[in-house]
Structure formats: C-alpha cells, structure tokens
Amino acid sequence: MEIRYNEKLKKLPPYLFIEIDRKKKAAIDKGADIISLGVGDPDMPTPEHIIESLRESVKNPANHQYPFGAGLISFRRAVSRWYKERFNVGLNAENEVCALIGSKEGIGHIHLAFVNPGDIVLIPEPGYPVYNTGTIFTDGVPYFMPLLEKNKYLPDLDAIPDDVLKKAKIIFVNYPNNPTAATAPKEFYVKLIEFAKKNNIIVAADAAYSEIYYGEKPVSFLEVEGAKDVGVEFHSLSKTYNMTGWRIGWVCGNKDIVAAITKVKDNYDSGVFQAVQEAAITALTSSQQCVEDARKIYKERRDALVDGLGKLGWDVKYPPASFYVWAKVPKGYKSSDVVGKLLDEAAIVCTPGNGMGASGEGYVRFALTVSVSRIKEALERISKIKW
Ligand SMILES: *Cc1c(COP(=O)(O)O)cnc(C)c1O
Question: Does the global pTM surpass 0.85?
Fold first, then answer.
C-alpha cells in the first residue's frame, strides 16, 4: 500500500532540530565531546519536594482514573492563588483556568476553537514553531510579524495591512521571548489590547518564561486593564520548575476562550494525570526558593557566556529574561555558517536564528543549559576558531 499524507502534514516546515541533531549525533559517533547549547530544555532536575509529592499522589487509586475536564479544582485554585501573588491578578478558578498537557498542547490546539479555513493568524518570527503548526492544521493562513532589534523585538502592530487585519482571528505574542530573550513593557500590552478590541482579534500570550528573569520581574499581559476581554495567557511549569518531561501547564484569562479550549480538549484528550496535577499544586504553593536558586544559576551562566563572547569580539547583550542568549554572528557570516563552524571546529551545538524565522538571520541562539565550567570550555574552544 502507498501511504499518502494529507496536504497539511506535507506543508509543515522541516523540524528545525532534526538536521542539527543529525550532525550532532554524527559528531558524537566520531568521538567529539559535544557541548550542547541547542535545545531549550533545562539540565537541572525537578526539585525534590515536587518529586516527593508525585510519589505520594501516585499511590492514591482516585488518581488512576481519567482526569477529564479543565483540571482538578484544587489545581485551578492553586493557579489562581499563584497568579494573585505573582501578578496581583484575580482569576476565577471555576471558569478562567484550564489545565494543559504542557502549554505546547494548548498553544497548538487553540486554533481548533477559533480558526476557519482561510482565517489569518498573526505570528511573531523568529518564534516558537507551534503557533504556525496549529495554523497549518486548521487550514489557517499565517501572517508573520518580524521581531527586529530596532523595535526592541516587539511586533510592529501598525505595519499590519488592513486586509490582513480583517481576516485575522488570533495574535500570538511571547514575552519573555524565545528566541530573542526580550521582555515586553506594560505599554506594549496596553497598545495590544486596544489593537485586539478594535480589530476583534483574540490575544494568545505565551508566558512560558515569565519566571526566568534577572532584574525586573516580567509583567503579565493579564495585568493590563481590559486584557481579560480580549485574550488568554499560556503558562508552563516546564521551565520554572525544571518539569519539561512532566507535561503540565495551563491557560487562563477570558472565560469564553478558556471554555472553547476546554471543549476542544474534552474531545481530544482526557486531561492531565491527576498525580501530576497534585505535584504541580505542590510546586505552585510551596516555597519558591527553588525558582530563585535556578535564576541564580542561569544568571551565572548568562554572565559567563555573554562576558566571554564579548571579550572575543561578539556583539551580544545580557538578556533580561529567559535562558537564551541571542547573539549576533561575526560580520560577513550567515547564521548557518556559524552554526556549522561551531559544530565542526568547536563541537558546540547552537540554534541558527533563521531556523526560527527569516528575521533571525544573522543571529544564533545559545541555551544556558550547561554548567559554567562547560560554558568556559565552550568559550575556550570558540577563542581558537579562525574567522
Ligand atoms: C518551552 C516553551 C513552551 C512550552 O512548554 P511546555 O513544556 O509545553 O509547557 C511554550 N512556549 C515557548 C516559547 C517555549 O519555549
């Protein structure tokens, strides 16, 4: 039998990390000691008190059944309390929060609730690929908003043409941003809410990195007046508590949008394992010292890498948040040249900026997911490369 894929699957761009991973594996096979600064997956383990909580919860037979629905009310209340504490925003646990199987799941499925064939989805680029994946799977049309240094990596909402706005259904924004590490000021969200109201476009704010910051705490989109009228915010426990493998996050905000996402989920999956939800409650309601400790570690790594690259003549700034360093490549090179050179000549893996969108050309992304001593080793190797 000939297996024929549908057009949507064929339309998906090749997965960025596959080629990088192939080259990385080939280098490892040849005996190279690879330093991986490519994928944004924390290297540190989940804190012990969260693991212990799972150990206990998993023993309870009530947790062995289908979870269903928007998540345990106790989980949604924990989210609501955490939100109040962190952002001073009130959330009704009954209808303004829905648990997700990782925020990626909700980010990839929100389109199913709102996008009809031909509808436009406004997507930042460079950016997280899932905003576009959901668009393709619903026969939507992506309109990419470049994130440029001269605009502080904020999308230029005024530059979006009227005919695009007429057909636009959802706008994605992501701050602290992956990959540029930029944060958004409150004024941006004020403008965004006005824009969303005027054009009747749903705001989907991706706040996966809200707790990874080095100075000022990033603001939430929902902190700004009127936000709940127009949108939702996606949160993740993955980066905050080193829980990428656990698959839990949530969406919160406008109750009608939350209800629509919940409806899609009711028909697709049967919820997040309740023992994982209970461990997440422990994460959100216990001391946040573990998050403070993680920030301190990322800051040491950030300073080591940015200081070191700066000394080697690279044009690179301290990121205010996230665990990425968005570095301009040496003059005269393209992103892919530099990724290739770093791999071939220094056994270092990083991500080409243009792999996450055309405007990322001229940059590479380093993830701060190795120790300071490995970062120093990486810098030592980079210092020996002839440009
Ligand atoms: C890591 C990441 C997510 C998703 O994380 P989950 O593990 O699915 O919760 C979402 N958005 C961005 C920008 C990310 O980098």
Answer: yes
CA dihedral 348, 353, 354, 358 (to 10 degrees): 180
Same domain, 191 and 263: yes
Domain that holds residue 346: 7-45+289-383
What is the C-alpha to C-alpha distance for residues 112 and 109, in angstroms, rounded to an integer? 6
- Cα gap 227→234, rounded to integer Å: 13
Relative to the CA of 247, which ligand 1 atom is closest? 7
Q: What is the CATH number of the domain that holds 219?
A: 3.40.640.10
Pocket test for ligand 1, best of 239, 250, 276, 322 (most atoms within 8 A of CB): 239
What is the CB < 6 Å shell around ligand 1? 40, 102-104, 128, 174, 178, 206, 208, 236, 238-239, 244, 249
- In the reported structure, the alpha carbon of residue 152 is separated from the centroid of ligand 1 by a whole-number distance in angstroms of 22
> 11-20, 148-157, 241-250, 307-316: lowest mean pLDDT where?
11-20
Summarised one tens digit per residue, pLDDT across range 223-279 is 999 999 999 999 999 999 999 999 999 999 999 999 999 999 999 999 999 999 999
